[in-house]
Amino acid sequence: MTSTPTSHLANRDTASSPAPSSRTSVETADAPSTSIPTAYVSDKADDSSKLRTFLSILRKFIGVADIASVRFSLPAQLLEPTPNLEYWNYLDRPEAFISIGDSDDALGRMLAVLRFWFTKDLKYVKGKPCKPYNSALGEFFRCNWEVEDDSPSILGNGPKVSATGKVSTEHKVVRVSYITEQTSHHPPVSAFWVDCPVKGISARGFDQLSAKFTGTSVRVIPGIHNLGIFINLRHRDNEEYRLTHPAANLGGMLRGSLSVTVADVCFVTCPKSRIKVILQYLEEGWLGKAQNRVQGVIFHYDPENDTMNKIKDVPEKDVLARIDGCWQDQVHYTLKDTKDPQLLLDLNPLWPIPKIIPPETQQLTNESRRFWHGVTEAILNKQYGQATKVKQELEERQREKATSRKDQGAAWKPRFFTEALMPNGKPELTEEGIRALKGLQEENYHLEESPILGA
Predict the structure, then answer these.
(1) Cα-flanking dihedrals φ and ψ of residue 218, to 5°?
(2) How far apart are CA 54 and CA 49, in angstroms?
(3) DSSP-assigned beta bridge partners for residue 22
(4) Percentage of the chain surpassing pLDDT 70?
(5) Given a cut of 90, is residue 74 above it in pLDDT?
(6) Where are the alpha helices (DSSP H) in 281-383?
(7) Omega before 187 cis (within 30°)?
């Protein structure tokens, strides 16, 4: 195995996109829009009076086990003008995602998974934490990303080719498609699916958060239906990776500047290659200065008898590599029996890649941008009273429809996913979901309106 050090993400200047300006969307009614949510803009300054108001509301929930399940309604002026389904995704750098299966070396592919993992939180590294709109039942969001396939393989010399192995994709633009739907309202859960057919890679999962207010910060953990991100490599004999989420803390409310810290353990597993990763996010440094450090170990494990949950418990004979760095700066890996760390990822020059969103004229009434259009326009025009009024009307409509379904004994069924929840954490697409993703790949955005709406 030969090591291939990486600079930034791809050893090329084009891997580092420029910082977005405060103008974050270019949109016309008949053309796809290219957008970065305002929360990604590099100005991290927060309105301290807004935070004080937010804090006064949160104090009512001290002692509540899970404030995320309460679904309380915030005044519009406290919200980021972004739908939750648009904001909450893991593809800030899609080129890291599509390169996961490039290496012919199993350890190299696991390192590529980790490179993707550390790019998915750019929204917190480069922007400010925010509170987007609560998703409505049946609401959905879809988009594409188009990126050059230019991230180098890590270990091994696997060629950059299509899933069929017949067409080179190196330095060519590759399309990644994404669809997500709010499949459950109580508890609030959404399902998502990412697909890049050209590269033979997909990802899926359920998103659900549980949150508890401690008095000065909010501790956020994955909900019971959120079992992680599941990545599948079709051209690698359906090799599957499971990535679990660590708990995080949202603090800085008293200072008037929100910040995210992580102090927890998470895991990446691949049963087929029998390789596992333990990542340990470290506590804040003394005097409260955040280190944002992460350490990890990559090792051989037995999927049938997986008992290793702490870095210190992993036998040295099983270790393949170690991880060390700062998840907001640079992360390195060191191979077994070597002493020279190799750069896995430099986050400093990287910014989230804009999404390509269907034209306004081809969005459905329950598609996120169109569904929340009235609220967003009012917030952007600082008409907060009007924004709150429209928001409350949407929420009341959802309650009325839920009552009607209950009276009729009718269960809600998602449109693009087969079930609202799945015990294994892996959503399955319906025929409509498959067609919707295929349409995104072909830039055919036409969908029929849903006969039954959740709101």
Answers:
(1) -115, 125
(2) 9
(3) none
(4) 80
(5) no
(6) 368-371, 373-380
(7) yes
Contact criterion met (CB below 8 Å) for 198 and 415: no
Q: Where are the alpha helices (DSSP H) in 59-188?
A: 67-70, 84-87, 94-98, 106-119, 122-125
Per-residue tokens: 396: 């009341």
Backbone angles phi, psi at 51, to 5 degrees: -65, -35
Query: 175 near 144, Cβ under 8 Å?
Result: yes
Local structure of 294: helix, strand or coil: strand
d(CA 207, CA 195): 17
Q: Minimal CA–CA distance to 15: which of 92, 89, 90?
A: 92
Dist CA 178 CA 140 (whole Å):
11
pTM of the model: 0.88
Q: Is the dihedral of CA 358, 19, 326, 285 positive or negative?
A: negative
Report the DSSP beta bridge partners of residue 266: 279
Listed in sequence order, the residues at least 6 apart from 262 whose beta carbon sits closer than 8 Å to its beta carbon are 246, 247, 248, 249, 281, 292, 294, 327
Encoded amino acid at 102, one letter: D
CA distances from 137 to 181, 182, 205, 210, 412 (A): 8, 5, 17, 18, 9
Q: Which of 185, 186, 182, 233 is nearest to 206 (CA)?
A: 182
pLDDT at 38 exceeding the cut of 60: no
Helix (H) or strand (E) holding 437: helix 431-441
Token pair for 344: 């896995």
Three-state DSSP at 316 gives: helix
Q: What is the pLDDT of residue 215?
A: 76
pLDDT tens by residue, 252-308: 766 667 778 899 999 999 999 999 999 999 977 655 555 789 999 999 999 999 999
Q: CA–CA separation, 161 vs 2, rounded Å?
A: 20
Percent of the residues in the chain that have a pLDDT greater than 90, as a whole number: 62
User: Under a CB-based contact definition with an 8 Å cutoff, are residues 124 and 66 in contact?
Assistant: no
Which among 305, 296, 256 has a CA at the least distance from the CA of 50?
Answer: 256
- Mark out the alpha helices in 120-201 (DSSP H runs): 122-125
Q: Euclidean distance between the first and final Cα of the chain, in Å?
A: 55
